[in-house]
Amino acid sequence: MTLDTTTRTGLHLAGVTLRLGDGDDTVTALDEVSLTVAPGELVAVVGPSGAGKSSLLAVAGGLTVPDEGSNTVDGNDLAAMKPAARTAYRRQHIGFVFQSGNLIPALTAIDQLRLIHHLHRRRAEPREAEQRLADVGMAGKAHRRPHQLSGGERQRVGIARALMGGPSLLLADEPTAALDRARSHEVVELLARETRRAGVATVMVTHDTDVLRHCDRVVEMVDGKLSG
Ligand SMILES: Nc1ncnc2c1ncn2[C@@H]1O[C@H](COP(=O)(O)OP(=O)(O)OP(=O)(O)O)[C@@H](O)[C@H]1O
């Protein structure tokens, strides 16, 4: 799948602070976090439980608005957008990969991709769904439903679905959590390859130190602060 990605600038988080909870229970989930991810780059975020990794993905994906700082995707500051514009931008330009694929049980692999396309009204290329499935090695199983696929295969479909419409930013939350070691390597290798091929800026949160060698860069989150 070829796309004009020459105008892309990737993800830029600058001075992002996010406070959660109220009153005495307020937690600084993100503390002046800055992070740049270039188009075609896969960055892993590691760190202990409660460090703020999910919060980082939520802000990067425009699901949560930070208290301070900017969150720019290809030059568009999501933090400064009105809610409806932010939702529309997210649907068109940001793809999500979840822990275990999050596929819809009743739909075949190919229909998982077609549905997301209809729902999100992303720009369509003829036969894009077929091509995306072929890119992740799933062309031969396009008409299987999730229960007829292995965990690794479901995750491949999840990655293909997230890439439908050519998003600028791909956010993966523990994509290998449900997989054994061999499948984990395959899935993260695929994520790295598709990141480069699609020219998408990818952020992957993971506890799985084994797969970090497939990533271009690893950053660590501790107590809401980023290092690395
Ligand atoms: N809705 C909320 N209200 C108050 N505090 C919250 C809320 N959601 C998360 N937190 C707190 O914010 C901090 C960051 O949480 P976050 O879920 O981002 O961490 P994480 O690194 O993703 O953790 P894990 O690896 O366990 O998923 C934690 O201290 C958490 O308890």
Automatic annotation (TrEMBL):
The keyword ATP-binding applies. Residues 11-228 form the ABC transporter domain. Gene3D superfamilies: P-loop containing nucleotide triphosphate hydrolases. Pfam families: ABC_tran (PF00005). GO terms for molecular function: ATP binding. The keyword Signal does not apply. SMART domains: AAA. PROSITE patterns: ABC_TRANSPORTER_1, ABC_TRANSPORTER_2. Keywords: ATP-binding, Nucleotide-binding, Transport. PANTHER family: ABC TRANSPORTER RELATED, IMPORT ATP-BINDING PROTEIN. This is ABC transporter ATP-binding protein. It comes from Actinoplanes flavus. The lineage of its organism: Bacteria, Bacillati, Actinomycetota, Actinomycetes, Micromonosporales.
